[in-house]
Every structure is written in structure tokens, then in C-alpha cells.
Amino acid sequence: MPLSPLHIETPLLRTSADYSKSGLPLWLKLDALQPSGSFKLRGVGLLCQHEVAKGAKEIFCASGGNAGIAAAVAGKALGVPVTIVVPETTSAEVRTRIAATGAKVMVHGSVFDEANAHAVALAAERKAAYVHPYDHPLLWEGHATLIDEVVKSGAEFDCVVTSVGGGGLLAGIVEGLRRNGLSDVPVIAVETEGAASFHAAALAGERVTLPAITSIANSLGARQVAQHVFDLLETHPIESVTVTDAEAVAACLKFADAQRILVEPACGAALAVTDVHADRLSRFKAPLIEVCGGIGVSLAALEAWRARFL
Ligand SMILES: *Cc1c(COP(=O)(O)O)cnc(C)c1O
């Protein structure tokens, strides 16, 4: 019997045509309402379920962000302890927030790569499950359920707009389109300037490693996308676009006022496209926007970004 999912089926909203400069009514898939605050629970939940079914007694993850919280939520539901390894640079606030989920927080290394290597080594040593934030086929299979839900609802859409960090969400969306017979539906892949590793790779024709991340959208801050995600450029219609941090923040504020839901700038990037790249959208009739969410936001943070950027 298939395991019942740890994520919830999220609402799908229809906006009016004048909601954005695109002049199109939009489908908004509200993954900000997942119990972990972002879409990440879809894939991370599935991966953790598989690992626990195979006998894992513990879960390790190296992410101070939404993948870590998703692993913590999944571990709690599955009744196994979760350890999140974060680098020294992760703020005390984030460490406290992770610890509040019941997960153990371990600090190791000065950058993500060091924390990640430590999580991988510990998981191997203890025969525990290791959860990568974006690079695993089960993550993509889990994320694909968001497209299954939209298709099942009967909503008709002719493009999908999504944010891209390491590309796990993009890979999941492409997988969801394929398994629903929608391989010809284009995906508009959005990053902020300063976190645009997919954009750089698409332009260069090879996987590029960014020297640094300079965007405030830290959930998009993978310096290099997964190989599988880069390879999708050959097999699926994907258009890579960027927005500025200021545009992402403006979109978060507009969305907060209109829908009364807070999302991270990483999610604001996707929401910004319908205003910033309105002409690119004009050849479509019904865009679907993945409102990916994120816990790295608060009223105070939005106010501070407003003061800084707008
Ligand atoms: C993880 C995350 C992303 C990017 O997802 P990838 O799978 O790394 O591309 C975007 N937005 C939010 C809120 C996230 O948590």
C-alpha cells in the first residue's frame, strides 16, 4: 500500500485579470500553506518516508532553511530523531527556530559545503538517512505532486512560473508535467540577480559555479544547480529569467496585502515575473505560479527590506 503523504493538498487560487501587469488571470498554487511553510515538505517528506521504510532510525540534513524545517516536520511525523547541521554563519534566530521543531541543531564548519559534508559523513557512519536540499530523484518525485494536484483540480494552465535555487523544485515541476502528459507546457524559471546559477548555466551552456551569492533571497542561494536540472534544458521548454531583489521584495509586499500571506523573497521572485516580465507572459492565456513560500520572513523582515529596497 502506498504511504499516505506527509504534505497537504494546497489551495489553488484564481486572480482577476488586473491583478498583475500581465493582464492575465493567474493560477496561484499556495504551497506557502504547507505545514513546513514551503513546498519542500512534498519531496523531503517522501524521501524521509522511503528511508524510514528501508530501516533508517535517524535523519540528517544540512540546511538552516526550508529543507531543514521540512526534514524536522517529516521526522516528527515518522517518529524518528532529526539532526540539522548548520554552518557557523547560520543566525541564532534560525537555530532557535529549528530547535523549536524538536530537531537537534549541530553547528559545523564556516560554510554550507562544510556543514553538508559533515551531515553526509555522520549519516553514513550511523546508517541514518541523509536529506539533500535539492539533488535527489525522490525529492523531484515528491515535488511533482503539486502538478498532480493542479491537474486533478481541472484547472487549465499553459505555462508554469517557478523560483529556482538548486533546481529541485524545477525538476519536480518538469516531472509532474511529464507524468500528466503535459511535456509541451513551458516553465519559466526565475532567480534573483546575485543568486542566478541556473541563468548563468543556461547562458554559458555548461554548469557554472557562482563565486558568491549576493542576493537576499537565500533560499535561492545554490552556487551551482544540480546536473539533472541543467540537463532538463535539453529536454523541456524552460525559459530562464531574473528579477532584482527589490522586485522580489515588492512582489512579497503586494502578495501580502492582496492575499494576507507572508512569503520569502525567494518566492517573491516568481510572483514578480507577472509584473516585471509582463510582455514575456503575454503569449500565454493562463499562467500557473508556484507560490513556494518559505519560513525566512516576518512582518519585521518585510518592513526592513521595504526600507532598504523601495
Ligand atoms: C528551496 C526553496 C526554493 C528553491 O528550491 P530549489 O529546489 O533549491 O530550486 C525556492 N523557494 C523557497 C521558499 C525554498 O525553500
From TrEMBL:
Top EC group: lyase
UniProt KW keywords: Lyase, Pyridoxal phosphate
Its EC number(s): 4.3.1.17
Any Pfam family matching the protein: PALP
Highest rank taxon of the organism: Bacteria
SUPFAM superfamilies noted in UniProt: Tryptophan synthase beta subunit-like PLP-dependent enzymes
Lyase in keyword set: yes
One BP annotation, GO: L-threonine catabolic process
GO terms assigned for molecular function: L-serine ammonia-lyase activity; pyridoxal phosphate binding; threonine deaminase activity
Cofactor: pyridoxal 5'-phosphate
Reaction it catalyzes: L-serine = pyruvate + NH4(+)
Ranges for domain Tryptophan synthase beta chain-like PALP: 4-282
Transmembrane segments: none
InterPro entries: Ser/Thr_Dehydratase (IPR050147), Ser/Thr_deHydtase_PyrdxlP-BS (IPR000634), TrpB-like_PALP (IPR001926), TrpB-like_PALP_sf (IPR036052)
Coiled-coil positions: none
Protein family membership: Belongs to the serine/threonine dehydratase family.
PANTHER family hit by this protein: CATABOLIC L-SERINE_THREONINE DEHYDRATASE, THREONINE DEHYDRATASE, MITOCHONDRIAL-RELATED
Protein name: L-serine ammonia-lyase
